[in-house]
Design goal:
By secondary structure, the chain is α+β, with helices and mostly antiparallel strands. About 30% of the residues lie in helices and about 20% in strands. Strands 1-2-3-5-4 form a five-stranded antiparallel beta sheet, with helices on one face.
Amino acid sequence: MGKRGPTSGEIAQEEQDRKMDNCLFCKIIRGDIPANKIYEDDDIFAFNDINPVAPVHFLLIPKFHIAALTEVEDKHQILLGKMLLLVPRLAKTQGCTDGFRTIINTGHVGGQEVFHLHIHVIGGIERLPVMIRHG
């Protein structure tokens, strides 16, 4: 018998590993690229945005590489819930005492620049500018 080729699962794992090797946020999680970390646990990493648009601007990312919100599956429910529950606690510790904005840019049309799911948390003391105008 000849040597068997890789299974579809092995191919998928190789592709996942390759994406993680080249992903900016995966490099930050691994410590290959420095970041101003504000929180870390087994599942989530949070750090200040390198180009803040407000006095408070940090990102929450899952340590598991998920390219975008369009890629989430049922198995990610607990992780996503944990991330959303963490947002207000971290926002408060960073100085957002009267609210904040959360943004998840998704895909090209949504303005996603780094293809690793992330939540922007933006705030400060002053009211943020209106994003969506009515009328």
